[in-house]
Amino acid sequence: MTETHWDLERIRSYVATQLPLAALFGIDVVAAESSRARVRLAGNANIARPGGSIAGPVLFAIADITTYVLTIMLRQKDDGATSNLLINFFRPALEVPLVSEAVVLRAGRRLITYDVRIWPEAAGPDRLVAQATATWAIANDRS
To answer: Which of 55, 95, 111, 143 has a CA 20 to 30 Å removed from the CA of 26?
Structure first.
């Protein structure tokens, strides 16, 4: 049986159909390569907290989705799960769209650790609103 290759379009479709949270918050996959992944939070009424800033759980969600996309691209299969995600908030996220980009810090056989950076699209990556470190556990292959 031949597996279909995971590329940007397949991942976009997969996230859109399998992760309702992405649609709820207005999250789109914009880049998916084996070296990095990038998602964009366009936002909607579901992302703000009182005072107008973007809620912390939304920033957590975009960091997690970004690492999910990169895990699929690296592995060419959907066989991992988040085992840890630590997020640091540097300043309030007051504007959308936001960009989240993940790169691999270390890829082992069973664990992959990522660095994730989140910034307002208009301000650029030098104006971080948050940074996360995420680790994904890979399912044990018993085939």
So the answer is: 111
> How far does Cα 100 stand from its chain's mean position?
6
pTM assigned to the model = 0.93
List of residues 6+ apart from 143 with CB closer than 8 A? none
Query: Which helix or strand (DSSP H or E) is residue 83 part of?
Result: strand 80-89
Residue appearing with tokens 């990556």: 125
Helices H / strands E in the chain, number of each: 3, 6
Q: What residue type is assigned to position 68 of the chain?
A: Y
Domains of the chain in sequence order: 8-138 (3.10.129.10)
pLDDT tens per residue across span 21-66: 999 999 999 999 989 999 999 988 889 888 889 999 999 999 999 9
